[in-house]
C-alpha cells in the first residue's frame, strides 16, 4: 500500500514570501528616506542661507506685497535659500504680518531674525547717528524711525509732527510747499508725504523732533521747487502732485516702470474710472497686511480708491524723485490695468479680460 507524500513548499510560494519581505524592506527604507528628507528640508528651512556670510543686502518690500512676492525677493537676493520653503516655514510659524520698507538683510540671518525684522519694520544696518527714511514710508513709519534714534515714543513723535502750531510754522517757513491744502477736511495727517526720503544726521538723541522733521520738509521743498514749472504746466497743485506721486511710489516695485503706472492712473481718470489701487485700501484700513482682501475693498473711506474716484485727499506716503518725474512725464499708453507678479514683474493690459487672464496666470496660479 503506497503512502501519500506531501511535497515541500513550492518555489512559487518561496518567491511570494521573498517578495513580501522585500516590500516590507522597501517600505522601511522609503519611510527612513522620507524622514531623513523631511529632516533635511526642515533644517534647510530653519537655517540661514549662508551662516558664514558677512554680506549685507538692500532689500525693498513694497506696500501690499504678498508673502509669495516677499519670499521670492528674499531668494532672488540670496537672503533665503528657497522661497517656497521660507514661505511655508513662515506659515508654519504663524507669522507673515510683514511691513513694507527698505531693509538691510544678510544671508547669515536666521529665518526667525528675518521674520522679526520684516514684522517689526526694523531697518537693520542704519549707522548710529544717522536716520534713514526709505521711499514710500508713511508718517507713522517715519515717526517710528525717528523715535528709535531719539529715545522717544513713536506716538509722541507723531503728535509733534501733527501739532497744528508746528504745521502752521511749516506753512510760514515753506509757503511754496505747505499750503492750506494740508488741512483739507478728509486729510488724515497734514504733513503725510511732505517728509522727504533720505538719510539725515541726528547729532544726538536730544535733537528736537521739530528740527528733524523740518529738515525733511525742507528737503522736499528743495526737490519740489526743481519741478515747479512742470507742476504749474500740469495744472496740479503741489498737494495734488505729492498725492499723485505717493500713489505711484506705493505701487512701485524694484522692476516697475513708474511712468507706465502713472499713465494707467491718468488713463483711468480721463475716463472717470476709479483708480482702484490697493495701497490706498491699506492706508484707509490703517493696517499693514500681506494682501488686500475682497472685503477690504468695501471700506468706507475717502482714501479707498475702489469706492471714491480721483486722487486721495492727500498723500499716502512719501515719494522719491523717480515717482515725481513719472507723474510729470508719464509714458503714453492705452493701458488701463496692471498687476505685479510674485516675482516682481509688472504686466499691463488694455482690457479687463486681458487683465483677468494675466491675473489667473501670474497671481492665482502662483499662490
Automatic annotation (TrEMBL):
Question: Cellular component terms, GO, for this chain's entry?
Answer: plasma membrane
Return the Gene3D superfamilies for the record.
Classic Zinc Finger (3.30.160.60), Endolytic murein transglycosylase (3.30.1490.480)
- Important for catalytic activity, annotated site positions: 251
**Enzyme Commission number(s) of this protein:** 4.2.2.29
Q: What class of enzyme is it?
A: lyase
Sorted alphabetically, the Gene Ontology BP terms of this entry are: cell wall organization; peptidoglycan biosynthetic process
Q: Which family does it belong to?
A: Belongs to the transglycosylase MltG family.
Quote the function comment for this protein: Functions as a peptidoglycan terminase that cleaves nascent peptidoglycan strands endolytically to terminate their elongation.
**UniProt cross-references to HAMAP family, sorted A to Z:** MltG (MF_02065)
Q: What is this protein called?
A: Endolytic murein transglycosylase
